[in-house]
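Memo to structure team: turn this sequence into structure tokens by end of day. - J.P.
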Amino acid sequence: MTKIILITGCSSGLGLVLAKELSKQAIVYASMRNLDKIKAFLDDKSISFHPIQIDVTQPKSIDLALALIQKKHATLDVLVNNAGVMHMGSFGDTSEKELRRIFETNFFGVSQVTKRALGLLKKSKDARVINISSSSGLTGMPSLSAYAASKWAVEGLSESLRFELQTIGIKVLLIEPGLIRTPLIKDNFSVTQSPNSEFAPLMKTLFSKWESLNPKNFLDPESVALTIVKRIYQKKPPFRTVLSNLSKLKFFLKKIVPYSIYEWIIRKSLSI
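Reply from structure team:
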């Protein structure tokens, strides 16, 4: 039976690639916040997914999109919570407004869409909620405090929901991609820089490290999308999928060595 799938955050990057890949074998509703981008997709005759407007921070837009899916299909098989924003900067310099903005999308966006979709997901015989987290949801790093906190919240929510939703036939899965060559690195990326801050020297060092990263070493969005497709159709998928080798190494080290040693390794690698 053809699956009905809703993906958030599809205007570009991983969401767009995943929507295109899944639409080869499923009915895909690819949501995006910007209505202008939706119009552009509607004019593209090569697109086989259904663009739909959702701002994950606005409950009304979520409800309208789910009402449309309910009217057409009466069920939803897979929800992929992909919408997200990234932020760099010291916690001490990040305003409360900015912190709340990050959580509104990265955490509350996930929780709101998931909660509102439960009624449709319960009607599926093999329902799945796939939350796109991050390696920063597993290991905290300096300059990523706000972003990591939002992703750690997603990890905690997902682990708890895994137990709760199994009782009504819904599987919850986590994907931790690591760095991907997507516009999230550019378009949905905010930076807090305060030249006169006591944290400015540390941030300068860390921003320099970030800028020196070679995008060629990042994951292809296509390979990440294919892994997600596999998890959607896999009979017994693992709960957590860590993708990049660096993320796997950090996660492994954090589990097996004393934290003081792990911290020393991270400080050494960042020259701080």
